[in-house]
Amino acid sequence: xxxxxxxxxxxxxxxxxxxxxxxxxxxxxxxxxxxxxxxxxxxxxxxxxxxxxxxxxxxxxxxxxxxxxxxxxxxxxxxxxxxxxxxxxxxxxxxxxxxxxxxxxxxxxxxxxxxxxxxxxxxxxxxxxxxxxxxxxxxxxxxxxxxxxxxxxxxxxxxxxxxxxxxxxxxxxxxxxxxxxxxxxxxxxxxxxxxxxxxxxxxxxxxxxxxxxxxxxxxxxxxxxxxxxxxxxxxxxxxxxxxxxxxxxxxxxxxxxxxxxxxxxxxxxxxxxxxxxxxxxxxxxxxxxxxxxxxxxxxxxxxxxxxxxxxxxxxxxxxxxxxxxxxxxxxxxxxxxxxxxxxxxxxxxxxxxxxxxxxxxxxxxxxxxxxxxxxxxxxxxxxxxxxxxxxxxxxxxxxxxxxxxxxxxxxxxxxxxxxxxxxxxxxxxxxxxxxxxxxxxxxxxxxxxxxxxxxxxxxxxxxxxxxxxxxxxxxxxxxxxxxxxxxxxxxxxxxxxxxxxxxxxxxxxxxxxxxxxxxxxxxxxxxxxxxxxxxxxxxxxxxxxxxxxxxxxxxxxxxxxxxxxxxxxxxxxxxxxxxxxxxxxxxxxxxxxxxxxxxxxxxxxxxxxxxxxxxxxxxxxxxxxxxxxxxxxxxxxxxxxxxxxxxxxxxxxxxxxxxxxxxxxxxxxxxxxxxxxxxxxxxxxxxxxxxxxxxxxxxxxxxxxxxxxxxxxxxxxxxxxxxxxxxxxxxxxxxxx
Length: 737
Known about the structure:
- Helix content is 67%, strand content 5%.
- It has helices at 3-15, 19-51, 55-82, 84-94, 99-112, 119-135, 142-154, 164-191, 194-214, 221-232, 237-241, 248-253, 257-267, 271-300, 310-345, 351-367, 371-386, 392-408, 412-429, 435-449, 451-477, 507-510, 517-533, 565-573, 583-590, 594-605, 654-683, 688-699, 707-719; strands at residues 547-554, 557-564, 581-582, 612-615, 626-629, 639-641, 685-687, 723-725, 732-735.
- Strands 1-2-6 form a 3-stranded mixed beta sheet.
- The longest helix is centred in the middle third of the chain and has 36 residues, at 310-345.
């Protein structure tokens, strides 16, 4: 019959109320046809694959099932078109499955899950067998596999809620996958290192994902990946990282970027594993940082010199410790550069991993109590010597790296204390290599901590600029008159500049220094000129911070010496006499403080350039030692700088550190009290715990205050009647306007 005749026949049957007979008749024909096909075309292969399991027998069996399925689908598409009116009228009114779906159910019940044949078990086993063969590296017929999988996906389970694929095949596939990779992981753990294990695991995941592309259902992707990650990563994440001589530590030490990238890619798919990786990287960096700190501590803990030769040995020890401090910063920066590269190349610049690395450096750097001072020394060394001959980009890189370590410091106020001290010496002595670099660094610090942090630093630069303008005005006004030398004066605002002169050279002792009539006349003239221009101000001369260029004749030879102001005063004592003078006599004639005088004389008589002869010859200066002008002095260079012993920026001694710490603690207490007042002025009332937490939060950008110091600050403010305790609750503070 033609298609039109068949369609009309079905149409007439429905119109004559024979739709049920037609529907049931088609179903019966399908059942009979499929049973016959199974018996003649499939059962022989099913029996053979059961009795002689092999890849070829499994493939023949699956091919026969696929052929029957393909023919059945084609037939049902044609039958559906012929019985289109049945679907449109009868099926809708009778609430039955459409003709095509009825055909699928018949195939399921007669072929796949029929009680007579039960091909579902044989098909599932054959599929799993084929997958197992492919996992072992054997070739299989992927087209056949795809056809069978599509059949399972299209066939609905009897409860009509999910496909046969989901109901019967997928659970067995996942169980088989779990067992296979559990065994594989155990074997590899005993044979491979972490890099090889990660590569193999990544390859396994890729191959399984490709298997889904080739023939498995895409709906299995998430569950299959979860199973793989559980067996290959979750169950072995710690063991893989701890593989002896081939774990994470060795990969980091060897900077194995490709393998670390694979390991990270693998672990990043499991939240618990990536967190473990971050923790291990953090611990490893802290360990390396502790090693750098230990090398520094070894120098710090070196045996101190005895009484004999104590001065020179102490100076040598300070120089060595200063060099070690600078090297500590360099080593920390090198370590950071390594892990910054790993972060980008291996860890895809992941934010969580970046935080883990940064937290490790914060922990390591702040375990070193001297880190603020050492970072400032490194910057000082760079701006005095390290930037010479470097391109602008290299200078910028060094400054950026310095600010990076500054960002990691918890006690930024301590850094400010030392940086201000070192910057002042560079500015006053003209030791900086680049003014632009100095200004650039201050700008970067301003971005990090705000204008309040850099206010005093900017004030120091302003003082130097105003002083230069003032010196020019002095020259134009011919203030110095008949003096035959040029004098440059830096006028400093006390609130901006650190107290260099806290160790002996304060304003009181400097006022007793005898400059001589020639020099005193110049300083008096400058003072008068300045005070005439700025009424209401007071000038205090700090001779300890000055320097001079002096032309000295040594017999027939002449040298130009760059010396400190104190050294110039000492040398002028020998201008008109060949006699020797004792230390005590020099002190009486110059008025230089004793502690300062010893350093000045050591620089002139005991250093590389011996301008004075000392008797007896030793580096220590006693009150009875005698000094005489060395007329036999000679040196190849015409201009010579006489460095002042211990006047350069160096790592602080224990005594100096204690003094600095006391000053920093004093400033911190003031900041704590100011923060408490600001908070209470805004809140009016606050519980003790909340006030402590809020104070810590506000001050954490500069330093981490302790609860004890905050409590002391609260007590002082109560005593000064800024706050009071609530009469109803002693833990509640009330602000007093």
